[in-house]
C-alpha cells in the first residue's frame, strides 16, 4: 500500500503535565489562548541555582549544594501514559496483553546522572539501574500496563519526542502495533546541562524565548511530560472515541554534513523533508493552514526554518489564499499537542513574545505570517483543516508531522437525559487516593462545569474499578460537588454507597433474565422514553424495522391515547411490545455500565435474550418476533393461561379433581410453588375456583392465546418455514 493510501491515525487521548499547573489539555489550551507565560524560577528542592552565580567568579571556593527533592522520568511517563489512556475513555484492563507499542523520547539524563554520581555510591542498590536507566522509560510503561507491542526509548535531542511519535505511527501503519502511546519527558534535576547549553549559546540570557522576533536570543529549557494515545481512525470510530485530530503522514530525515558546523541546520535537508512527506502522504502542501514550528528563537535557526517553510508551503499559494500561519510554543510533543488542539478547536492562539519580526526573514515574500492575535480558521466542507508540526534536533534529526481535522462522521454531541438524579461511580486504590480523587473531581467540575451526563458516563463506563468504590446519587452540579467534598474529607453521605473490593476477589457475575407475557400494560416505558436517550433511540430503531413488516407502529400502540387495555392482550401487539421494552431496558442498563455475563429468557423473552447476547441482530430479532406473533395469533381465542400458586404435582392433582371438558396442561414450571396452566377459558375458570378453595393463588394472565400447549402444535411447521433463512450466531 502506498504511503498516500495509508489509513490516518487518530489521536484519541492526551496527557500533559507542564509548568504553571497545566495538567489537562483544556487547561493547556486556555493558557495558550490567554498568552500566559509560565516561565518560573528553579524550585528550591532541586538545586541552589544562586550557588552557581557569583559577582566575583574568581573568588576562591564555591560549594555546590546536593539536590535532594526530585521527580523521576519513569514515574512521570507512567502516570502520563495512564492519564492518556483514561482521557480516551479506554479501560486499562482492556489493553493488557495487547500489541500496544510504547515510544518515548528523552533528552538530558539528570536523574540517571544523580544516581550514578560519585557522592551517591553509598546509597546505590540493585534497583538503581532499573529505576534510572534511560532505556527503561518506555519499558516501565509496557511492563506496568502489560503492553506487548514495541517498547522504545530514544534520544535525538530536541526532536526526540516527535521522532518517537513518528516511529509509533510507522508501527501502527505496518500493523506491528494495534495502538501506541507516544511522547516525551524532560526533568531538570541538575544544573550541569543548563550550564553546558548556556555556554554553547543555545539559551536565552533573559530567560524568554522569542521565535521569529528581532530580539530572539535563544530558548528557555523547560520540564514536563506529554503523552498521546494513538490508534487507527477506523478503530477510533468503531470505539466511538473522541478524536482530537488525525495524522496523515510523518517523516524523519537528517541534515548530513554541514560545513558551518555540527549543530548548524541544513536548509536543503529541511526543504527535502517537507517535499517528501507531503508527496508521500498525498497532501497538497499549499492547503496547510498552520504550522507549529520548531522555533528555537536563535539568529541562525529561525531564518532557516522560515525559509524552508516558505519555499515548500508558502510560495506556491495563490494570491487569494491566506499566508501560512506559523507559531511556536515548545518543541516536540508539546508542539504536537498544541497543533492537535489547534486542529480540534479550529483556531490559532496568539504567539507569545512576538513584537517585531526578524528582519532576516522576508515574511511577505515567503507568504508566512505570525499570529499576534487569536485567529479563527475557516472550516471548509470541501477540504479538511490541515496543520503541520516541525521538530529539529541539535544533531540534525529533522521531523515533520501532518495533522488533519477529525472525520466528519466522528461521534459528537451529548444526548441529555431528562431525569434529575444521576449515578456517579468513583474508584481508587486506597482511601487516601480516593479522597484525593474526590477533591480533584470536585475542583474540576466547579471550574469546567461539564455536562454531568458526560461525567457520569465516563466514570461509570470508562474508568477502571479499584479496591475503593463509591456510588453517588446526585442531582445537579452543586449536589455532586457537595457529596464529593464529603468524600474528600472522608465523611459519610446518605446518598453515597461505599464498597470495598477485597484483593483477589472475583468480580460478581450479572445475568439478565427476560420474561414472557403477562406483565405488560398500556403506556409502559413512556417515562423512560422521555428521560433516557438510549431507550428512546433503540425504541425508534426497533420501530423502523417493525413498521414496514407489520404495517403499524409499535410505538403508537404502546403509547396509544385514549387508552385501550384490550389491545395489550392481543398477540400481534403484546409480543413485539414486550420484546421491544425488554431490549430497551437492557440497552439502557448496559449504557450505565451494567453489562450481563449471561442472558436467559422465557417465551418471548428468549428472543430479547438472543439479541442482547449477540446471537441475533436487532433486525433478525424483530423479524422473529413479527413472524412468531403473527403465526401464533392464529390460535387467538382458543383459550387462555392461568398463573397458579402451586407446585407441578399439586397442579396436576387439582386438575384431576376438576371435571374439565377439554385438556388443561402445565405450560411452564416457573418455580417450586408457581406453575402456568393453559386450556380453554371455561376449563381454567374451574381450575382457578378449585385453587382458591384450597387457599392457593390463581390469576389469569393477560393473553388471548394459550401458548406453550397443544394449541400451538398445528402452527409449528408454518413458523419453522418462516424462520428457515435465519442462522443466528454461535456464542462462546
TrEMBL record:
Note whether Phosphoprotein occurs among the keywords.
Answer: yes
Asked whether the UniProt record includes Phosphoprotein among its keywords, one would answer: yes
Cross-referenced InterPro entries: Ac_transferase_dom_sf, Acyl_transferase_dom, Acyl_Trfase/lysoPLipase, Ketoacyl_synth_AS, Ketoacyl_synth_C, Ketoacyl_synth_N, Malonyl_transacylase_ACP-bd, PKS_assoc
Q: Which GO terms describe its biological process?
A: fatty acid biosynthetic process
What organism is recorded for this protein?
A: Penicillium desertorum
Q: Which UniProt keywords apply?
A: Hydrolase, Phosphopantetheine, Phosphoprotein, Transferase
Q: Which PANTHER family match?
A: FATTY ACID SYNTHASE, SI:DKEY-61P9.11
Q: Which PROSITE patterns match?
A: KS3_1, KS3_2
What is the name of the protein in this document? Acyl transferase/acyl hydrolase/lysophospholipase
Under the GO molecular function aspect, what terms does this record hold?
3-oxoacyl-[acyl-carrier-protein] synthase activity; fatty acid synthase activity; hydrolase activity
Amino acid at each position: 500500500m502506498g504511503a498516500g493510501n495509508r489509513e490516518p491515525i487518530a489521536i484519541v487521548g492526551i496527557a500533559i503535565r507542564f509548568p504553571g499547573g497545566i495538567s489537562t489539555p483544556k487547561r493547556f489550551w486556555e493558557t495558550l489562548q490567554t498568552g500566559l507565560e509560565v516561565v518560573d524560577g528553579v524550585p528550591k528542592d532541586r538545586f541552589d541555582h544562586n550557588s552557581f552565580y557569583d559577582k566575583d567568579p574568581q573568588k576562591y571556593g564555591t560549594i555546590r549544594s546536593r539536590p535532594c527533592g526530585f521527580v523521576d522520568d519513569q514515574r512521570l511517563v507512567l502516570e502520563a501514559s495512564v492519564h492518556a489512556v483514561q482521557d480516551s475513555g479506554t479501560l486499562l484492563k482492556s489493553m493488557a496483553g495487547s500489541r500496544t507499542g510504547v515510544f518515548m523520547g528523552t533528552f538530558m539524563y539528570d536523574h540517571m546522572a544523580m544516581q550514578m554520581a560519585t557522592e551517591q555510591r553509598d546509597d546505590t542498590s540493585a534497583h538503581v539501574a532499573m529505576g534510572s536507566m534511560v532505556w527503561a522509560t518506555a519499558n516501565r510503561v509496557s511492563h506496568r500496563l502489560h503492553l506487548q507491542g514495541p517498547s522504545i526509548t530514544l534520544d535525538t535531542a530536541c526532536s526526540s519526542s516527535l521522532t518517537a511519535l513518528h516511529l509509533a505511527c510507522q508501527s501502527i501503519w505496518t500493523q506491528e502495533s494495534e495502538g501506541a502511546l507516544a511522547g516525551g519527558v524532560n526533568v531538570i534535576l541538575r544544573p550541569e546541562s543548563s550550564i553546558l547549553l548556556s555556554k554553547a549559546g543555545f539559551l536565552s540570557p533573559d530567560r524568554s524565548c522569542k521565535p521569529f522576533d528581532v530580539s530572539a536570543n535563544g530558548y528557555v529549557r523547560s520540564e514536563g511530560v506529554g503523552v498521546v494515545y494513538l490508534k487507527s481512525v477506523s478503530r477510533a470510530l468503531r470505539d466511538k472515541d473522541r478524536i482530537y485530530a488525525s495524522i496523515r503522514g510523518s517523516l524523519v530525515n537528517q541534515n548530513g554534513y554541514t560545513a558551518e558546523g555540527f549543530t548548524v541546520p541544513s536548509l536543503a535537508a529541511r526543504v527535502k523533508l517537507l517535499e517528501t512527506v507531503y508527496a508521500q502522504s498525498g497532501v497538497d502542501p499549499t492547503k496547510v493552514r498552520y504550522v507549529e514550528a520548531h522555533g528555537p528563537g536563535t539568529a541562525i535557526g529561525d531564518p532557516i526554518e522560515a525559509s524552508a517553510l516558505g519555499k515548500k508551503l508558502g510560495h506556491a499559494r495563490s494570491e487569494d489564499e491566506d499566508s501560512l500561519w506559523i507559531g511556536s510554543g515548545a518543541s516536540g510533543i508539546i508542539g504536537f499537542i498544541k497543533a492537535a488542539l489547534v486542529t480540534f478547536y479550529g483556531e490559532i492562539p496568539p504567539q507569545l513574545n512576538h513584537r517585531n519580526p526578524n528582519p532576516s526573514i522576508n515574511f511577505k515574500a515567503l507568504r508566512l505570517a505570525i499570529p499576534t492575535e487569536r485567529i479563527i480558521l475557516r472550516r471548509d466542507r470541501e477540504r479538511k483543516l490541515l496543520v503541520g508540526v516541525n521538530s529539529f534536533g541539535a544533531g540534525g534529526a529533522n521531523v515533520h508531522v501532518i495533522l488533519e481535522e477529525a472525520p466528519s462522521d466522528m461521534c459528537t454531541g451529548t444526548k441529555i437525559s431528562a431525569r434529575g438524579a444521576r449515578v456517579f461511580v468513583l474508584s481508587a486504590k486506597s482511601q487516601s487516593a480516593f479522597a484525593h480523587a474526590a477533591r480533584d473531581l470536585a475542583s474540576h467540575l466547579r471550574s469546567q462545569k461539564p455536562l454531568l451526563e458526560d461525567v457520569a458516563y465516563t466514570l461509570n463506563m470508562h474508568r477502571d474499578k479499584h479496591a475503593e468504590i463509591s456510588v453517588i446519587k446526585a442531582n445537579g452540579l452543586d449536589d455532586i460537588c457537595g457529596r464529593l467534598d464529603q468524600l474528600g474529607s472522608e465523611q459519610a453521605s446518605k446518598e453515597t454507597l461505599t464498597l470495598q473490593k477485597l484483593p483477589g476477589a472475583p468480580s460478581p457475575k450479572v445475568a439478565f433474565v427476560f420474561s414472557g407475557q403477562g406483565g405488560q400494560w398500556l403506556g409502559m416505558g413512556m417515562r423512560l422514553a422521555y428521560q433516557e436517550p438510549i431507550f428512546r433511540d433503540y425504541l425508534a430503531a426497533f420501530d423502523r424495522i417493525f413498521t414496514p413488516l407489520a404495517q403499524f407502529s409499535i410505538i403508537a400502540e404502546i403509547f396509544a391515547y385514549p387508552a385501550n387495555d384490550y389491545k395489550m392482550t392481543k398477540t400481534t401487539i403484546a409480543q413485539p411490545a414486550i420484546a421491544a421494552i425488554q431490549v430497551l431496558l437492557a440497552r439502557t442498563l448496559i449504557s450505565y455500565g451494567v453489562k450481563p455475563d449471561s442472558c436467559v429468557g422465557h417465551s418471548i423473552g428468549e428472543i430479547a435474550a438472543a439479541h442482547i447476547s449477540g446471537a441475533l441482530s436487532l433486525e433478525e430479532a424483530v423479524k422473529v418476533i413479527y413472524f412468531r406473533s403473527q403465526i401464533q395469533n392464529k390460535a387467538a381465542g382458543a383459550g387462555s393461561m392461568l398463573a397458579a400458586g402451586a407446585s407441578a404435582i399439586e397442579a396436576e392433582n387439582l386438575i384431576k379433581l376438576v371435571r374439565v371438558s377439554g385438556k388443561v396442561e402445565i405450560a411452564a414450571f416457573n418455580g417450586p410453588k408457581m406453575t402456568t396452566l393453559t386450556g380453554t377459558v371455561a376449563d381454567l375458570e374451574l381450575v382457578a375456583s378449585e385453587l382458591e378453595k384450597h387457599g392457593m393463588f390463581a390469576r389469569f394472565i393477560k393473553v388471548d392465546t394459550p401458548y406453550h400447549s397443544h394449541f400451538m402444535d398445528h402452527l409449528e411447521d408454518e413458523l419453522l418455514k418462516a424462520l428457515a433463512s435465519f442462522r443466528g450466531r454461535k456464542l462462546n
